[in-house]
Amino acid sequence: MKASVHGDAAYWPPAGLLGRVSEAERGILLSLGHRVVYPAGHVTIHEADTSDYVLLLLGGTVKVTAHAQDGRDTLLAVRMAGDLVGELAGIDQQPRIASVTTCGRVLARHILRSELLDCTNRHPAIGFALSASVVAKLRTATGRIVDFTGRDVRGRLASVLHHLAMTYSRPGQSRIELPLSQPEMATLVGAAESSIQKALRALRASGAVSTGYRKITILDPGLLARIATEAAPPSGANEAEHGSRQSHTNTRFAGRGHVSMPITAGLAVKEDQGEPCQKAATPRTHLRGSGSATTPPESW
Q1: What is the pLDDT of residues 115-170, one digit of tens each?
Q2: Which residues are within 8 A (CB) of 24 and not within 5 positions of it... i.e. 6 or more apart?
Q3: How far does CA 149 lie from the centroid of its chain?
Q4: CB 188 within 8 A of CB 199
Q5: DSSP H helical segments within the chain, as ranges?
Q6: CA triplet 188, 162, 78: central angle to 5 degrees?
Q7: Helices then strands (H, E): number in the chain?
Q8: Which residues contact 2 (CB under 8 A, 6 or more apart)?
């Protein structure tokens, strides 16, 4: 998703950093760092790296991923225009906890940690907006963990897709296309691919979504919300599956002081958030998407 034109001004989703500040503060943020353009499939931030810059996304889509113990990439979130990615390392200078990969061409501002901290010191409102955006990501992550216990796979998938639609669709937009493959959706909701295939069939039959090659289009966000609300708790084989995956997730992140999620969103921005994303090295998850651009989380 690129910065959309709504009326006479660029439209920034309200959940992102650029959507949380005033026009004057937005101008300050957009003056920081330097402009960068990344091609499809480019890893803009590497997991475990000790760099501390952040990326303010101006157009395009990225996926945030982390390397799991079984060798796969786990999709944590999707990030789009208006989002800041890489902010955790940009604040605490600890190693990156995830990677961020582009889906299609991405336009961003590359901002050094020193610039970001100086900006938030001089402009407290921007610092507050940054804190609020991080809190929103943590709330989403917490809600996703709760979903592991309270909803079956179809309900969890409906909940995640509804959240992405509400986060990134602009006013009046009736549908939103996301560059998500079935394996990526499986890691996003903590389910087996076979369970995701079954859930997608049900969502397609209901008219809530349509699917294509490595993409899903949300047709009826309201219906997704109702499906998520009415979803039954996991049971039987699905309960065993989700319990095992929840345990794996909790173990994987327990030593990092990190709350596991998307989002975001997660809707590739790999860590730091188009044309198809190029696949990662085998056996990692393939990263492909569609759309155009004009590079969270690491923090999601």
Answers
A1: 999 999 999 999 999 999 999 999 998 988 888 777 899 999 999 999 999 999 88
A2: none
A3: 21
A4: no
A5: 23-30, 87-92, 113-122, 124-150, 153-168, 182-189, 193-206, 221-230, 236-254
A6: 45
A7: 9, 11
A8: 58, 59, 60, 81, 107, 291, 292, 293, 294
